[in-house]
Write a structure and sequence with these properties.
single chain; mainly alpha; 2 domains; disordered N terminus; Triger factor/SurA peptide-binding fold
């Protein structure tokens, strides 16, 4: 997808096609607004008693799709069938609902810094507004305001993750035992290179701690799903 945008002839065809589509679209503007209004009032489920509208679900589905595009890039089209975006959309709604209990927020500055940090929105090492708008239009197919609110929610979910896992720790025995498991090839062998362990301990411990946090948070999410309707 990103390679497609670098082709000037292709981009020109896209602009011509877009011009053809835009004019009829204005004729149906009122109809689209009416449909969206119905979506706002209709609900398709509940999370702990709170009604979830079809519109909220579709917004969450758009957000997890965009997150997958960011994560997988050009590979997204190949693997999107293997990703359960629908389930991820419900999980996202659960986490956002939970984050509100902790009164977690994200400032405009945090959103801006997060967006500007992505290399694919940059040219020559700096954020490029034209590249940003082109990618939102052709790749993410999401209005800027909507995308920025999705990014705000992403930041809030990360803050929730940090909040829930902030007390997860490791002791020296855990680090040593897991290092032995990871580096010992022969079953039952417990000896290892002490010097190498000393050199690799900090990096290994960081990876192990993050893994432990992810497992803990996954269990936390499963418990949320059990409680929710």
């Amino acid at each position: 997808m990103l390679r497609l945008l670098r082709n000037k002839k292709t981009a020109k065809r896209i602009w011509i096609g877009l011009a053809i589509v835009i004019m009829p679209a204005f004729l149906f503007w009122g109809l689209g607004s009416a449909v969206r209004s119905k979506e706002e009032s209709a609900f398709i489920g509940k999370i702990n008693g709170k009604k979830i509208t079809l519109l909220e679900y579709k917004d969450a589905l758009s957000a997890v799709r965009n997150a997958a595009i960011i994560r997988f890039g050009d590979r997204f089209d190949e693997i999107q069938k293997e990703i359960n975006l629908e389930a991820q959309a419900w999980e996202r709604l659960l986490l956002i609902y939970e984050a509100k209990k902790y009164k977690l927020t994200a400032s405009d500055r945090e959103v801006i810094e997060s967006i500007e940090s992505y290399a694919f929105f940059q040219r020559k090492g700096n954020f490029d507004n034209r590249t940003y708008n082109d990618l939102l239009r052709y790749v993410f197919r999401t209005p800027a305001r909507t995308f920025e609110e999705q990014m705000r929610e992403n930041i809030i979910i990360v803050k929730l993750y940090n909040k829930i896992t902030e007390n997860i720790t490791l002791n020296d025995k855990e680090i040593r035992d897991e290092y032995i498991k990871a580096t010992t090839k022969e079953k039952g062998k417990t000896s290892f290179d002490e010097k190498k362990f000393s050199l690799e301990k900090n990096d290994f411990a960081q990876r192990l701690l993050e893994q432990k946090k992810q497992i803990y948070f996954a269990n936390f999410l499963e418990n949320l799903k059990k409680k929710a309707q």
